[in-house]
Specification:
With 246 residues, the chain is α/β, with parallel strands linked by helices. The chain is 18% helix and 30% strand. α3 packs parallel to α5.
């Protein structure tokens, strides 16, 4: 299974009239945040493949449709429930921020000849650095990940594994991240992948201006991939987490 991963930058190789031919063998698309909605819409409509997305710490105009928002009511902020406005497939893509989903349309081939659905979870946002929207402390993010636990346990019982793909914007701490407050990763992501061992953690947020910077890092049973601009990974029942660039 070939997976196109994108984040943080409109890539001219993707946003192109040749995209359909260039990526004709893609089976799945992952959008790891900080991308304009019209770019995601272009990818979905052009490639016509199942697409998942999460939000980063920028391009958040649509964020209010997926999460409760603070609404100023007099001098004290209150919580507004926007659940009635939630769009299940904005831009034609599926939002997986702070969710664990079972995709029965995407099948994983097993060594015994049987198949099972793709298991994917996601976490939007970055480390808190200026109290902006969709920024979290490590403790706050840890609590959000704990809410995924019932579904992950169900996955293990039903399918024999917790997770195939963990889609995030920020990276794990000390893997691809930086030391400035904005670009530090989450320590709780390290705990999460150690415990649930997804085949891939795909993230954005860290721009690869210097292409000698690492894009792929193996940690335990998980391969951490920086999706900046675009890259392609392959997932199958015997995957070792190797990654192919274009």
């Amino acid at each position: 299974m070939k997976i196109l991963c994108v984040s943080d930058q409109i890539d001219p190789l993707v946003y192109s009239t040749q995209a359909k031919e260039r990526f004709k063998d893609i089976d799945l698309i992952l959008c790891a945040g900080d991308l304009p909605s019209d770019y995601i819409d272009f990818i979905v409509s052009t490639l016509n493949k199942q697409t998942y997305f999460i939000f980063g710490n920028h391009n958040l105009s649509e964020f209010k449709y997926y999460h409760k928002q603070k609404k100023q009511n007099g001098p004290h902020p209150t919580w507004q429930d926007d659940s009635d406005l939630e769009m299940k497939g904005s831009f034609g893509a599926i939002y997986t921020g702070f969710k664990a989903l079972v995709d029965k349309k995407i099948r994983i081939n097993l060594p015994n000849g049987k198949t099972r659905p793709l298991l994917i979870a996601g976490a939007s946002g970055s480390k808190r650095y200026n109290n902006g929207l969709n920024q979290y402390t490590d403790s706050q993010m840890r609590l959000k990940l704990l809410a995924l636990l019932p579904r992950l346990i169900f996955n293990k019982i039903r399918y024999g594994t917790y997770l195939d793909i963990f889609l995030t914007h920020a990276s794990p701490r000390h893997i691809h991240d930086k030391e400035d407050p904005c670009h530090q990763g989450f320590e709780c992501f390290n705990t999460f992948i150690k415990r649930f061992s997804p085949t891939f953690l795909v993230h954005g947020h860290i721009h690869l201006y210097d292409m000698s910077m690492p894009r792929v890092t193996k940690t335990g049973g998980t391969t951490v991939v920086n999706a900046y601009s675009h890259t392609i990974i392959e997932l199958n029942e015997n995957t070792d987490g190797t990654e192919t660039n274009e």
